[in-house]
Fold this sequence. Notes:
Blueprint: E1 2-9, E2 18-21, E3 31-36, E4 39-44, E5 70-71, E6 78-79, E7 86-88, E8 98-99, E9 101-103, E10 108-114
Antiparallel strand pairs: 1-10, 2-3, 3-4, 4-8, 5-6, 6-7, 9-10
The protein binds FE2/S2 (inorganic) cluster (FES).
FE2/S2 (inorganic) cluster binds at residues 47, 49-50, 53, 72, 74-75, 77, 89-90.
Organism: Microbulbifer rhizosphaerae
Keywords: 2Fe-2S, Iron, Iron-sulfur, Metal-binding
Domain Rieske: 5-110
Amino acid sequence: MSKMVKLCTLEDLPERGARGFDPEQWGHDTVFVVRRGRFVYAYRDLCPHYGNTALPWRKDAYLDTKGEAIVCAAHGARFEIATGLCTSGPCLGKSLVQIPLRVSNGGDVLATLDTNNNGAESP
Ligand code: FES
């Protein structure tokens, strides 16, 4: 089962940055969105290396210093912003769990969340 939730508006996102969200109210960010101008991408905040580790070392720190890749602070895995594919690090070739996202005509950033699965792998 899935549900669509509004994460924010496009204006709430930095032009070339990332931001975490807690749409299921778990008390920590479980989803993050990366914006590249008019393009936005959303992923579960779970690194495929261990499957249940959040990526950033502090709130919203999902990108490298140049803003060119998503990085995991734990062991340095790097992921393509547009695809979530790991291009270097211990989970090379694996991918972040992408979340369907769309921006409404009014600028609302809407994510479709799977309510049965948070994207984490079983231990
Ligand atoms: S948990 Fe992300 S690189 Fe190891």
